[in-house]
Amino acid sequence: MSLETLFRVFVAGVLVVAPTVLFLGLWRGMMALRDGDLVNRTMNGDFGPIPESPITAAMFGYGGVQRSRTTSSTAGGQVRCGQCGAVNPEYADYCGNCLDELG
C-alpha cells in the first residue's frame, strides 16, 4: 500500500469515528448536567413547591386588576383582560394569562 492510500484510510477512519466520539461526549455531558446538584435540590423541594398548573405571565408579576378592554387605562399598545385583568399587547386576540378572548 502506498502512503497516499494509508493517508486516505486514516482520514476515512477519523471521519467515521469522530462524530461518534463527539456524540458520546455530548451525551455524557448532558447526563452530568441532569444529575447535578441543582436538579437534586429542585426535585427535593429546596426552592419551594413545583406548581402543578401551567406557568402563566401573572406568576411573574405582569398584569393588574381592571375590568374590560375598552375602559382600561393602560399605556399605549396594551390591553387589559376583562376576565383576569392581565396586561396584554394590543395585537393579542387572547389573554396570555387566562386565554380568555380579548375585546
Question: What are its keywords?
Answer:
single chain, 103 residues, mainly alpha, 2 domains, two-stranded antiparallel ribbon, 2 helices, 6% strand
Give a verbal description of the structure.
It is a single chain. About 40% of the residues lie in helices and about 5% in strands. It is mainly alpha-helical and about 100 residues long. It has 2 domains: about 5-45; about 55-103, no CATH class. It has a two-stranded antiparallel ribbon. Residues about 65-70 have low confidence and may be disordered.
In brief, what are we looking at here?
This protein is mainly alpha-helical and 103 residues long.
Low-confidence stretches: 64-72
Distance between the termini: 79 Å
Strand content: 5-15%
Strand order of the largest sheet: 1-2
Oligomer: single chain
C-alpha Rg, in Å? 27 Å
Helix content: 25-40%
SSE string, helices as H and strands as E = HHEE
Mean pLDDT rating: 80
Number of strands: 2
Topology:
Blueprint: H1 3-34, H2 37-43, E1 78-80, E2 87-89
Antiparallel strand pairs: 1-2
